[in-house]
Design goal:
Chain A: InterPro entries: AAA+_ATPase (IPR003593), ABC_transporter-like_ATP-bd (IPR003439), ABC_Transporter_VariousFunc (IPR051782), P-loop_NTPase (IPR027417). Chain A: This is ABC transporter ATP-binding protein. Chain A: Keywords: ATP-binding, Nucleotide-binding, Transport. Chain A: It holds the Pfam family ABC_tran. The complex is a heterodimer. By secondary structure, chain A is an alpha/beta fold. Chain A folds into two domains: 201 residues, P-loop containing nucleotide triphosphate hydrolases (Rossmann fold, 3-Layer(aba) Sandwich), CATH 3.40.50; 64 residues, no CATH class. Chain A contains nine helices and 13 strands. In chain A, β1 and β2 form a beta hairpin. Helix content of chain B is 80%, strand content 0%. Chain B starts with 6 loop residues before the first helix and ends with a helix. Classes of the chains: A alpha/beta, B mainly alpha.
Chain lengths: 278, 244
């Protein structure tokens, strides 16, 4: 479990980013962390990985204080950053010299992922494209079997087939003891993948709901024609129509449009959240 | 599993650092040892009487190369696009510190000494008995190696503390520190003796004796036994507090 309790944090010479931030992430789920630029998504992920220290409050990962960065905790965290640089050595050499630190690393899984991503196992890292390097890191990260996998904009740089491969691989890698956190602006890449939607705005968690609960309570309409105004929670103008979020009167689960949901939550947080109050 | 220090994890870390840093280090080593080889052959051929100077050149390269290598040992940590991997690597701060020190101090000393010795053999054979050739490993060499291992910890701290231009910033810091010490000593002297002319008669024998005996002893103990470990401890805390 990942727990942030009353975390306060500010960058040097900047206004406070997190003020008494609280967040709990349970095992067995994939979390989609959404937010505008500068909302604090990457900073939050860095706190979880122990890469930034809170000025006060606590960030714990499976009971360990993240900022202590002790090896036992780090074996259970793997971070795939948005931007990275890999050394100019062979893919095999990199894997061999880094995999030894992860007791649960599986070469069988790793080779399977490489095959699925169509990556040559004997390639030199410097000869791979950015997207291929990212796929390599995703394969490596999943093969570590770390219980917390943090992916910051994982689909940036991936081609269209690779994005669906990514969704398939990540979904198959999730087990009951794992937490996968995906931060992205490409919300469409997370559809049918995430279990929870967490929205961060100005350093605050303004929305944190299960996809099943969202689809049970909200309906995402491509066109709002004929929908009573009292049922519309959020709408946005599209060419020739209005799309929006409405109350789900049918009681049946509907497909969640993450882009609409995100826009709705950002624009009218209280209206969307009030719909979840039991 | 011990979360502070584990010899198996330390070994793996040393191997990892050696593998990941191998390409640039091998290129630099090739260039340096190649130059040493050429200089050695030229010395053996054109200036066999200058073998002592050749040894001095080797020691200069040994110090400079070691300090530059040390200054770059935490390059992965200081490169924003690489630091994620370094900081989240399941290795304790103590192991990262000790592993990096082992690579830049004992391993560097042994590898450099062996290769330099082999290179030194070439002009030694060329000169034969025609000129006296100083022994490669003598008291002065071991003294120099010992000095390197102490002074290297200054550059080690600079490598851990500074984020960019580690070598140059460390050299500049040493320079500024020397100026500060010089000014401080000068000020102290001026405060004690009022800036007037001072000669031996101004010191009584006891004071002079104690200064002459105590200061070198203290300096000896400080340099050989305290400075190195102290700077390594400071480096540890610098690494421990490091965020991205």
């Amino acid at each position: 479990m990942v727990e942030l309790n009353n975390v306060n944090f500010k960058y040097k010479n900047k206004k406070p980013l997190f003020t008494d931030l609280n967040l709990q992430l349970g095992t067995g789920f994939i979390y989609g962390l959404l937010g505008k630029n500068g909302a604090g998504k990457s900073t939050l992920l860095k706190h979880i990985a122990g890469l930034l220290y809170p000025q006060s409050g606590q960030c714990k990962v499976f009971g360990y204080t993240a900022s202590q960065r002790i090896p036992q905790m780090l074996e259970d965290i793997y971070v795939i950053p948005e931007e990275f640089e890999l050394p100019s050595i062979a893919l095999n050499a990199y894997t061999k010299s880094n995999a030894v630190f992860y007791a649960k690393f599986s070469y069988e899984q790793f080779n399977k992922y490489l095959t699925e991503f169509e990556l040559p196992a004997d390639a030199k890292l410097s000869t791979l494209s950015y997207g291929q390097k990212k796929k390599f890191l995703i394969a490596f990260g999943l093969a570590t079997n770390a219980r917390v996998l943090i992916l910051d904009e994982p689909t940036n740089g991936l081609d269209i087939p690779s994005k669906s491969q990514f969704r398939k691989i990540v979904a198959s890698a999730l087990t009951e003891d794992k937490i996968i956190i995906i931060s992205t602006h490409q919300v469409r890449d997370l559809e049918n993948l995430i279990d929870f939607v967490v929205v961060l705005e100005n350093g605050k968690i303004i929305f944190n709901k299960n996809i099943a609960e969202i689809s049970e309570r909200l309906a995402f309409e491509h066109s709002l024609a004929g929908v009573p105004a009292s049922d519309i929670l959020y709408h946005e103008d599209m060419p020739g129509r209005k799309a929006g979020i409405t109350r789900n009167r049918s009681g049946q689960e509907t497909r969640v449009d993450l882009e609409l949901l995100f826009n709705g939550v950002i624009k009218d947080t209280s209206v969307i959240n009030s719909h979840f109050v039991k | 599993m011990n979360n502070i220090f584990d010899i198996g994890r330390l070994t793996k870390f040393i191997q990892r650092q050696a593998v990941l840093n191998a390409p640039p280090i091998l290129i630099a080593a090739g260039a340096i040892f190649g130059t040493m080889l050429i200089v050695s052959i030229l010395t053996g051929y054109y200036g066999p009487e200058n073998m002592e100077g050749l040894k001095g050149f080797f020691l200069f390269v040994f110090f400079l190369g070691g300090f530059i290598l040390t200054s770059n040992i935490f390059a992965e940590l200081h490169t924003p696009l690489k630091s994620y991997f370094y900081l989240t690597l399941p290795v304790s701060t103590a192991e990262k510190l000790i592993g990096s020190w082992i690579l830049t101090s004992p391993v560097y000393v042994v590898v450099f000494s062996v290769i330099a010795y082999l290179i030194y053999l070439i002009p030694t054979i060329m000169v034969g008995n025609s000129y006296p050739v100083p022994a490669f490993f003598d008291h002065d060499t071991f003294q120099a190696i010992g000095s390197y291992m102490v002074i290297q910890t200054v550059f080690f701290l600079g490598a851990a503390y500074f984020r960019k231009y580690n070598f140059l910033k460390t050299v500049l810091s040493l320079f500024l520190f020397q100026i500060f010490i010089g000014l401080y000593a000068g000020l102290l002297f001026w405060l004690l003796f009022g800036g007037g002319n001072v000669n031996d008669r101004d010191f009584d024998n006891g004071f002079k004796g104690s200064i002459e005996n105590t200061v070198p002893q203290l300096a000896h103990v400080f340099f050989w036994y305290i400075l190195g470990p102290f700077l390594l401890v400071v480096s540890y805390f610098s690494l421990k507090e490091r965020e991205v």
